[in-house]
Structures are given as structure tokens and as C-alpha cells.
Specification:
With 451 residues, this protein is mainly β. Helices cover 1% and strands 46% of the residues. The strands form 10 sheets. The protein has a 4-stranded antiparallel β-sheet with strand order 5-4-3-36, with no helix packed on it. The protein is globular and about 55 Å long. The two termini are 35 Å apart. InterPro entries: Quino_amine_DH_bsu (IPR011044), WD40/YVTN_repeat-like_dom_sf (IPR015943). Keywords: Signal.
């Protein structure tokens, strides 16, 4: 079981000295490499790391200490700002203007043989930036991260581990045949899964091996959007993608179509867990909803072993920002009745229903602020922008253990822990009262965007 180290080790008691500074900045010039790692003298060693909350809002980003809500730093940015995990558990990929720039949240976990040392430093917007006209999906998988530019179809693969050294190490640069709202997923064998399409139509997903040779393809995925990695098989990665006629699953080197009832079913926002064979997805069945917006109450649990689907009706509508996975694969959905629904992904059984916000309605524009969440360190961080509050929910128990007031009205959230998986695991044979919690080795997952 993955455990929330911040609670086990008394996050509220940690003295995170040297973290109160504010850093203002703007997007630096785009470069393949550059920047400097913070000098060791700027770091403070601590007994454990407290997760840091990064909020995108009008005017930039702000980072908070999850222990007490203190503002640790901020950066000024123009335009609409989006946030994605960079893949190392420390940096956040900030999409703004025509670039994707790395934001250092200042959490460091360094392994020393059989134990770890933990350090903190001021958050800062770095000058590590990739040009990306109409920046799109950022997908960490394995030990690589793919950045996709919708405006050009350019795909940039980076090594997230190099970010800690102040370097943006570009491993590969390629591009799709035409610009489109697409996605790329680095595969653990060195290959690449990517979409093909145009601004008007996209229905093709391809897999290339490490030498760039086409090894698998499907053209039966209209409106392809959203991706999730599930538990791999002996032969390699398992990736699910949303389509408008049922999802497709890449498994054992081939694409498999998920059957549906009727002609239309869209699961364009998917969330996986690499220890689970189940993918959580939205479930839309109206090709032409009456007012242009379908407000589904049902979710889909896709079984990547046999391409089957379990449908669960939550009894209340949800929005694309409200799906995520817990530390043990739990399916999390925030519904418009203000409840956080925590489900067993294998059975669809409701484990907890946690009231976390007032009732709300989906905004007219997806860019507008509305309730949202991120999951890290065994906790669901749930934002109510109207009340300007954030509730921390222990996923295992369904209990709210901390509430914070927010200094800004956010429209996106990411939470970092200092390790790539976002979760801490008590090492076998260790006494949690006498030893630090050790990071687990699991991979992160990517939040889909319904736009």
C-alpha cells in the first residue's frame, strides 16, 4: 500500500526554511539546452518533503505549501496558462503563449544507497523552454516525456531526469504529417505512439519502433483524444485512447477496438494507473446534444485485458477536469452535487462519497474556473474556486484532513512531491516511526483535456 508520507511524518511540523521567496518571471527564450541548477547553498535539507501545490490563474502561476497554504513563490505569465506534470515529480510543464516552459517547484529527493535525503528550495520559472505553437498534450511515460505542439504537429521527446541538472535534454524531435490537436506517448521499448490527422479530422493512431519504422496502425479512431497507460503485459506497454466510436487499446503490439452499443460513444478523457489493468474514462453517448453540451452521469471502466467496458452511473453529472486515479488505482470522480466519488475500479463499487464543494454547474467555456482536483501522495487535492478553498481528502479513508484558503482563483492545478510517481511507499522492513518513507518506482499519468 502506498502511504501519504506528509501525514505519516507530520507535514505540519516541518520547518521548510528558505522557501518563502517569490519569483517573478516571464517565458524565457526557447532553447534546446540551458539554465542552471540551483546552487547547493540555496537548498535546505529537511526530514521529509511536503507536497507543493501549483495553481494556474489569471496572470501566472502560484505555488503553495500543502502543510499550511503559505505562498512559496509565484511567476507572472501572459495569456491563458496550462499545467502538466513534466515527468520527474519536481517540475511542472507550463504551457503559455507559444512555448512549453519548465517550472521548478523546488522539491528534491536524492537517493543515497539504502536511504534518501530530502531538500527544498524556492520555486522558480526556469529558462528551459520548447517552442510549441498552440501547445498541446504533455505526456510523461517510462523515463521520457513527449511535448506536442498542435499548431505545427511537432513532437519533442525530452529526458525529465536532466531537468534537475538545469538542462533540457532533447532525445528526439519528429512531427506528424499535418498539424492537429494530437498526442504522442513515448513507449518503454524506445518506440513512440502518435496520432495523425488534420485540423478538420483525426482518426489515425500509429506506433513507431525505436528506429522510426511503422509497426502498428489503426484508422478506426475518429476524433481521437485522450490517452492513458495501463498495466503492461509481458510484451510491453498497454495504452488506451478515446475515440467517438469506442476506445482503442494498444496491447501486445496491436490495436484492439472496444465494442460499444450504437454508433457513438466518446471517452476522450482517460486516466490510467500502471499497476491497474483498468482505465477510467468519461462516457458520452450523444453525438449532437440538444444545447451543444452533454453532461454525462455515467463513467466507463475499460478493462484492457479483454477490451470490455463496465458502465457506472454516479447519479450526478461531472466534467472532464474531475476524473483521476488514487494511489492504489481507485477511480476518483468529482460530481456537480459537490461530492468526490471514490470507486473500486475492478468492481465499480462505491468506496466513499465525500462532500467537498457546494453544488455547481459546468461553465460555458472550458477555460473558466470550476471545481477541479489533482491526486498525489495518497491525497485528492480538490479546489473550489468560487469559495477559494482547497480540501485535502485522504483517498484510502475518504476523510478530509486539511482545508486551505487560496490566495488566487485558479483554473488549473498540479501537485508535486519530489518523485516521479507522486506517491511515497513505506519500504518493507522499515519502521515508519524511525525511518524516512522511500519513494516508489511507479510512473505518473496524464490528465486529458476536453477541448
Amino acid at each position: 500500500m502506498k502511504r501519504r508520507a506528509a501525514v505519516l511524518l507530520g507535514a505540519g511540523l516541518l520547518a521548510l526554511t528558505g522557501c518563502g521567496g517569490s519569483t517573478d518571471g516571464a517565458l524565457g527564450e526557447s532553447s534546446d539546452r540551458g539554465g542552471e541548477a540551483a546552487p547547493a547553498s540555496d537548498r535546505t535539507e529537511v526530514g521529509a518533503l511536503t507536497p507543493r501545490i501549483v495553481l494556474a490563474h489569471e496572470g501566472g502561476v502560484t505555488t503553495l505549501d500543502s502543510a499550511d497554504g503559505a505562498v512559496l513563490g509565484s511567476a507572472e505569465l501572459e495569456g491563458y496558462v496550462r499545467l502538466n506534470p513534466a515527468g520527474d515529480g519536481r517540475h511542472v510543464a507550463v504551457s503559455a503563449a507559444d512555448a512549453i516552459t519548465m517550472y521548478d517547484t523546488g522539491l528534491l529527493a536524492q537517493g543515497h544507497g539504502d536511504h534518501f535525503h530530502y531538500y527544498v528550495q524556492d520555486p522558480a520559472l526556469t529558462d528551459l523552454s520548447v517552442p510549441a505553437p498552440q501547445p498541446g498534450h504533455v505526456v510523461p511515460h517510462g523515463d521520457r516525456t513527449a511535448l506536442f505542439a498542435d499548431g505545427t504537429g511537432a513532437i519533442t521527446i525530452i529526458d525529465p531526469a536532466a531537468l534537475a541538472e538545469g538542462e533540457l535534454e532533447v532525445l528526439e524531435e519528429t512531427a506528424t504529417e499535418a498539424p492537429h490537436h494530437g498526442v504522442a506517448v513515448p513507449l518503454t521499448d524506445g518506440g513512440l505512439l502518435l496520432t495523425q490527422g488534420t485540423e478538420g479530422m483525426r482518426s489515425t493512431v500509429q506506433v513507431l519502433d525505436a528506429e522510426g519504422n511503422l509497426t502498428a496502425e489503426t484508422t478506426d479512431c475518429p476524433g481521437v483524444h485522450g490517452e492513458a497507460a495501463a498495466r503492461p503485459t509481458e510484451s510491453g506497454d498497454v495504452i488506451s485512447l478515446g475515440c467517438e466510436n469506442g476506445s482503442v487499446i494498444y496491447r501486445d503490439g496491436e490495436f484492439h477496438k472496444v465494442p460499444i452499443e450504437g454508433d457513438y460513444q466518446r471517452s476522450g478523457n482517460q486516466h490510467g494507473d500502471e499497476d491497474s489493468t483498468i482505465v477510467l474514462a468519461d462516457h458520452k453517448v450523444q453525438a449532437d446534444p440538444a444545447d451543444g453540451k452533454e453532461r454525462p452521469t455515467e463513467i466507463a471502466l475499460l478493462d484492457t485485458r479483454d477490451d470490455s467496458t463496465q458502465i457506472v452511473d454516479l447519479g450526478s453529472a461531472y466534467w472532464f477536469r474531475f476524473l483521476d486515479r488514487g494511489p492504489d488505482g481507485e477511480a476518483l470522480v468529482l460530481t456537480t452535487d459537490g461530492e468526490l466519488n471514490i470507486l473500486d475500479p475492478e468492481t465499480g463499487e462505491m468506496l466513499h462519497e465525500v462532500p467537498v464543494t457546494e453544488e455547481w454547474t459546468e461553465p460555458e467555456q472550458w477555460q473558466q474556473a470550476a471545481p477541479m482536483m489533482a491526486v498525489a501522495d495518497g491525497t485528492a487535492f480538490v479546489v473550489d474556486p468560487q469559495a477559494r478553498t482547497l480540501s485535502m481528502v485522504d483517498v484510502a479513508s475518504g476523510e478530509i484532513y486539511r482545508e486551505l484558503e487560496l490566495p488566487v482563483v485558479p483554473h488549473e492545478i498540479q501537485v508535486t512531491t519530489g518523485i516521479a510517481s507522486g506517491e511515497y511507499e513505506i519500504a518493507p522492513g522499515f519502521d515508519e516511526d524511525e525511518h524516512d518513507a522511500e519513494p516508489s518506482d511507479g510512473g505518473g499519468d496524464h490528465e486529458g483535456h476536453d477541448h
